[in-house]
Amino acid sequence: MFAPLTEALIKHAVIGEGQSVLDVAGGAGEPSLTIAGVVGPTGSVTCTDAVLEMVEAAQREAEQRGIKNVQFRQCSADSLPFPDDSFDAVVCRLGVMFFPDPHAGIREMLRVAKPGGNLALAVWHKSDINPFCYIVSGIMDQHIASPPADTDAPNAFRFAEHGKLARVMEQSGAVDVMEHVISFDIAAPISPREFWGMRSQTSDTLRTKLAKLSGDERAEVAREVEQAVRQFFPDNQMKFPAQMIVVNGKKAN
Q1: Cβ-based neighbours of 182, under 8 Å, separated by 6 or more
Q2: How far, in Å, CA of 195 to CA of 73, rounded?
Q3: Which of 185, 213, 186 is closest to 200 using CA atoms?
Q4: CA nearest neighbour of 6 among 244, 170, 200
């Protein structure tokens, strides 16, 4: 679903054949497994995540695909178990928003990057221009009250404001920092019902809210979401317009 975002990270981190790349908060294996094909057999990718189950899922996926040039480690972004100056490039796709301390995480990414190495981070742009998110959150708000969001607390839209993540990168020591808005379609051959199943299972925030509702209320939420998103399912296949922000910079030489 987020392949165009992975392509943007590869472009702005200037990833190429033969490089060593670190993927921080790589979840179930992307963008690591795609990057593995870009760096080729002479390159390597290290996929990390703080959640052991995610790391194990990523490893299984790599084994099923026969991908040999990816290594896996469970670790948090603010404590990367790698020597200084280890990687040509470091990427993080939709993860830095959830770091307890983004400055600490980015400093660690810069520490393990080689001098002059590239760092590229992808985050959600504003909620109100991303129907993949705002339709579900709007319906949930009608069923269960949500406290006002702390814009600096870990959440999906923590860095949705233009320039915010770029400032954090600069404060953390990155140089030549640039910001890019990436527009694409979040597309996949799934139905509205499958979309709701995916969203309700993969979002920790959503799972927590749903657990507070009765079975009948959860069924009503599902019905409302499936009805509301149908406009984004031409031919019963998902196609949400989306905007993300990619910020890239370098480790000083």
Answers
A1: 4, 5, 8, 122, 243, 244, 245, 246
A2: 30
A3: 213
A4: 244
- The one-letter amino acid code at 21 reads V
Question: Could you give phi then psi for residue 74, rounded to 5 degrees?
Answer: -90, 120
- Domain at 3-250, CATH class: alpha beta
Q: Per-residue confidence of the chain (253 residues) as pLDDT tens digits?
A: 999 999 999 999 999 999 999 999 999 999 999 999 999 999 999 999 999 999 999 999 999 999 999 999 999 999 999 999 999 999 999 999 999 999 999 999 999 999 999 999 999 999 999 999 999 999 999 998 877 767 788 999 999 999 999 999 999 999 999 999 999 999 999 999 999 999 998 887 888 899 999 999 999 999 999 999 999 999 889 999 999 999 999 999 8
* Tokens linked to 39: 């760096």
**What angle, 0 to 180 degrees and rounded to 10, lies between the N-to-C axes of helices 215-228 and 192-202?**
130
pTM: 0.92
- Tell me, what DSSP letter sits at residue 22? E
